[in-house]
Amino acid sequence: MNPEKTLVLIKPDGVQRGLIGEIIARFERKGLKLVGLKLLKLPKDRADQLYAPHQGKFFYDYLVEFMTSTPIVAIALAGQNAIELVRLVNGATRPAESQPGSIRGDFSIDITHNVVHASDSPENAERELNILFDPSELVNYSRIDEAILYSPEL
Ligand code: CMP
User: Fold this and answer.
1) Would you call 54 a catalytic residue per the annotation?
2) pTM for the complete prediction?
3) Which atom of ligand 1 is found nearest the CA of 51?
4) SS3 51
5) Which domains does the chain have, with CATH numbers?
6) Mind listing the pLDDT tens digit for each residue in 53-112?
7) Are 72 and 40 in contact (CB under 8 A)?
8) Pocket lining: 124 vs ligand 1, CB cutoff 6 Å
């Protein structure tokens, strides 16, 4: 068991296209547990913090402009190997590489308007969760299906 927490953002295009429920359902169905959830308009200073690793790249300014343009949904998810699993459910960043069956593979055709964002490492998950959520907004609880989702520790 490798319990992890990670951050997912439903980007402005996902919210505007009415995909919030569809996207959250895919994570729930996988067995990932929602531990934080909010709709917000991302302030520019927080977009800059979130995308600091991309500062200076040619797409940075438009990425920040897009992410702050209309509301997003921030989701904190917990589960075994959550960081890697969420990235699989989301699909590859490049449109030609995102497999059908993944969120991006099913719903996006563009590298920036690509519906979702997710943390790509344990370090970034902690950093990004702190940008979007106050620790008091993350809820610690058990889901009743955990008893059957996971095998016992051997
Ligand atoms: P995301 O998962 O939000 O993380 C960084 C974002 O930068 C990425 O999704 C893309 O939307 C965007 N991005 C990455 N590479 C490029 C690129 N080559 N051109 C435009 N946007 C990019």
Assistant:
1) no
2) 0.97
3) 5
4) coil
5) 4-141 (3.30.70.141)
6) 999 999 999 999 999 999 999 999 999 999 999 999 999 999 999 999 999 999 999 999
7) yes
8) no
